[in-house]
Amino acid sequence: MTVSPHNISRILPAVDIAVAAFVIYRLSRLINGALAVRILASLSLLLISAMAARLVGLQTVYLLLKAIIASSFVALVVIFQTDIRLAFAAVNRGRQGKEREIEEVDSIIEELAVAAESLAGRQIGALIVIERSMSVDNFIAVGTDIDAKVTSELISSIFLPYSPIHDGAVIIQKGKLTRAGCFLPLTQNPEVSKNLGTRHRAAIGLTELVDAVVLVVSEETGSISLVVGGRKTNDLDPATLRKVLRKLIEPRWLS
Amino acid sequence: MTMDQPEKKYLLVGLSLLLALLIFFFVVAETTGEQRMVAPLEYEGVPLGLKLEIPPPARIEVVVAGPRILLLKARMTGLKLTLDLHGLRPGRNSFAEPGQFSPAESELRVRKVLPPVEIIARVSQ
């Protein structure tokens, strides 16, 4: 195919759409996945409704939707300014920084897996909250400020029965163990089994509100579970736990 | 909503593509385009004392310009044109001036009339 102005004008719309789709995709990756899906779907619905209103001749509805669409792009930038700033900062840090971040995440996951395995082996209950893109600060009560490096020894010692802060959750924010002995909101979902213990109910309750990942070690069975989005994955062996955590935790949430 | 990472990634890719397509169509729909179409013609404003011996044709061919989305609507639902006959004089009259033809959709404009509309009027008794 020869390159002529006619050919270029035929390809241009496809290039236009592809570039726009790439930009939208990269921007949506800055936001928590489920939320990004909802935002993209809502914007698509708004655009379809606006075009339908224009076709049918509903002038007021069309003008209203057009104004909402135009302002929603600005609103999204304002709402997600922190995520966008973090993403640009991550870009500036470059490849070397990225490799270091991955190493840090791996090291935290390793510490968590070792702690969980050790606690499960001794049937000591544990509740570990790993914050992701949404802050958990508004949903946790009491607790003791710690601000320490995440190590399996520290986590194990916090949950030992004679520790004064063993009866609550440990919070991991931005790659640091920030608090211990925190109380989480219990789930109010009537469909959740009554047989579940308080730790599991708290893990489900918190993850119904925010996108955090919660690791639970059962005191009764010594089994390890992960809770995300109000859903529980039971009986994880240490290898699977490492694998799932690597999938669920992105370096940007721990740096 | 809980999803696996690859599943979530594909969903995001799909939605990004859909949104890009919709934005593209939203923008293109508002750009000005031209369309040649045959439209039914109505007329109004025949001066008092004049009678049409040969009235305008029921349908004429025109080139219409305006937002592409309204041109699409006109293609789907049909375009109605009104010819203003206020300047009609006894004898043969030729209407080729696009401004004399008003589409029912106010944002559309007639660019060209193909061919000019010929009307013969005479003084009524």
Task: Tell me about this structure.
Chain A has helices spanning 5-28, 33-56, 59-79, 81-121, 152-159, 198-209, 238-248, and strands at residues 126-130, 144-149, 169-173, 176-182, 213-217, 224-228, 231-233. Chain A is an alpha+beta fold and 255 residues long. In chain A, strands 2-4-3-1-5-6-7 form a 7-stranded mixed β-sheet, with helices on both faces. In chain A, α4 packs antiparallel against α7. Chain B is α+β, with helices and mostly antiparallel strands and 125 residues long. The longest helix of chain B has 26 residues, at 5-30. Chain A binds chain B through residues 13, 16-18, 20-22, 24-25, 28-29, 33-34, 36-37, 40-41, 43-44, 47-48, 50-51, 54-55, 57, 69, 228-231, 247-248, and chain B through 1-5, 8, 11-13, 15-26, 28-29, 69-70, 72-73.
Q: Which structural class do you get from the secondary structure elements of chain A?
A: alpha+beta
By CATH, the topology of the largest domain in chain B is: RNA Polymerase Alpha Subunit, Chain A, domain 2
Instruction: Tell me the radius of gyration of chain A.
Output: 23 Å
Bin the helical content of chain B.
25-40%
CATH class of the largest domain in chain B, named Mainly Beta
Assembly annotation = heterodimer
At CATH level 3, the topology of the largest domain in chain A is YojJ-like (1
Strand order of the main beta sheet of chain A, please?
A: 2-4-3-1-5-6-7
Instruction: Give the overall pLDDT of chain A as a whole number.
Output: 86
Find the structural class of chain B using helix and strand composition. alpha+beta
Order of helices and strands of chain A: HHHHEEHEEHEEEH
The biggest sheet of chain B, with number of strands, parallel, antiparallel or mixed sense and barrel status, is:
5 strands, mixed
| SS summary, helix count of chain B | 2
Low-confidence stretches of chain A: none
Give the key terms.
heterodimer; A: 255 residues; alpha+beta; YojJ-like (1; 7 helices; B: 125 residues; RNA Polymerase Alpha Subunit, Chain A, domain 2; 2 domains; five-stranded mixed β-sheet; three-stranded antiparallel β-sheet; 8 strands; 42% strand; rod-shaped
